[in-house]
Target: Porphobilinogen deaminase
Amino acid sequence: MRLVYATRKSLLALAQCRAVIARLRAIHPHVEWVEEQVVTSGDKIQDRPLADIGGKGLFVKEIEERLLDGRAQIAVHSIKDVPGVIPEGLAIVCVPAREDPRDALVAPRHASLAALPPGATVGTSSLRRLVALKNARPDLNVVPMRGNVDTRLRKVDAGEVDAIVLANAGLIRLGLGARVTELLAPEVSLPAVGQGALGIEAHEGDEATRALLAPLHDPVTGICVATERGVMIAVEGDCRTPIAAHAIRTAEGALHLRAFIANPDGTHCRTTERTIPWPSSESEAAGVGRDVGHHLLAQIS
Ligand SMILES: NCc1[nH]cc(CCC(=O)O)c1CC(=O)O
Model:
């Protein structure tokens, strides 16, 4: 059996999909795993904010085309980059155990967020991170910065900005965990929907592929990610609306969800928390998330 996996070419995309494929290869040594690298429009257009060019879906569009026309059978995504609505016929069929979901401050010449000098510049194009930074430190000068993780690290090292904020999960997967200056608590910067988790996309009805992937699925992460994505779907996943959601399974076995939205310029924001019995399915979890998302939307508009 031959199975083609489509991936973006960024260092992070390659590192994370190859780590997944290495696990699959160990479980299924008889399968021939073939890598197909794809340049997405999100990768091609680097000079404009994502919200202006069509949103994060641009990182998955060309990959999904390969799944749909059969040139590839699976794709490993950062679930954070996958829009709420997935093309007809495709599905996220496997969600492996989550890496640390927190945001990380990388400030090579400073000790912490609190220790940045007044008016320090922080590079991020994420509205969610901008609102979190401004809440913690209204004096900071937040400047737009896109680009892959490695590009952004080069810019902060070169002194273009004093600090950047990245997902800790991406740094860990790149072997760059030592670059973190400070991990930001969810109370300071609530993680993006799905941050730190991967999602493997395939044809919904491709039972053979689903069976191959099943050993990697982590049901707890699956429920948490479904809940968070429910919040995003309720808020329409408009990338001009800063949104964050983070779900965990508590020590008592309950689902705890914290969610946040702001208006597009970040001047009004709302956070809410809910603890409920552990959902019995991902669709039930998604319903909980949508409910919280609608509730937040009603408060902000
Ligand atoms: N938007 C790009 C992106 N998509 C996923 C990750 C990190 C890995 C993850 O969240 O799983 C990143 C980089 C970042 O936010 O620093």
In short: The mean pLDDT is 94.
